């Protein structure tokens, strides 16, 4: 593996002004993670270097236990490696799982790409359940401090991310948002008595959209509404209603991109790196692991994007790709790591050409 990671280390060194030995170890971890498709330390130890498994394992454990990572630098690296250019559509959501009686709950902010999201920031929540307004503000302010509010085209989020204080915070920063609402919210509309939100869309045919051009008062904040009636995957009637900061007749199409963050979560879990199988219980160590996973994810995505531009992924009869860009990239990068050093160097150049 020694010759395969030199170019990757150069890319990391360009963005992370860290000690060379530390960067060398990080790129070994990234390549090992991609090869093994798993976050298991014991599996990584078996292929990390030519040293014994025990020596490799202890080296990995020391890294996660002792080394301090600058997560601002990681965020800048991830944005620099992304093929998406600003202004960005950001997606905000949580992923959570339980392992060995421990609850893992992570709030993530990502950049929307082609049917997937690319990670930028995340926050480890020390509780189960929904995030609160202060936690969301902390994450978004961290992004704004590094990249500026002007770099945000839209913030897209699901029904968890609502509330007077939250909407007011976004309005104060002039951040355009597209956030789904619960259909049973009360609203004030057109100087009439308060009504349930779904009432404005109850007469629509299925899958027909309505965009209300006058702002309505929701939780002491004026918002614009777009909505439709749909049949969900459980074959039940459901209202898809989103709130936006400005009127936008494309709001429902914008909101549809929220699904990209679910694809990211799936990729780092069961469809890719199996982060939910980690034995780490300490939040700081898990935070470091997610940083390694995030860098690997972006590289794999770039490889998939490149290969799809040369040999497009087959489209099945249901008009969906036979596999995701991420899975395509993971397969192609693994083949190259095993059999083609020259192609690995080509794939590393994808990162240095951003």
UniProtKB/TrEMBL annotation:
Lineage top rank: taxon: Bacteria
One MF term in the entry's GO annotations: transposase activity
Domain Transposase IS4-like: 91-298
Signal peptide bounds: none
GO process terms (BP): DNA transposition
Pfam families for the chain: DDE_Tnp_1
Name of this chain's protein: Transposase IS4-like domain-containing protein
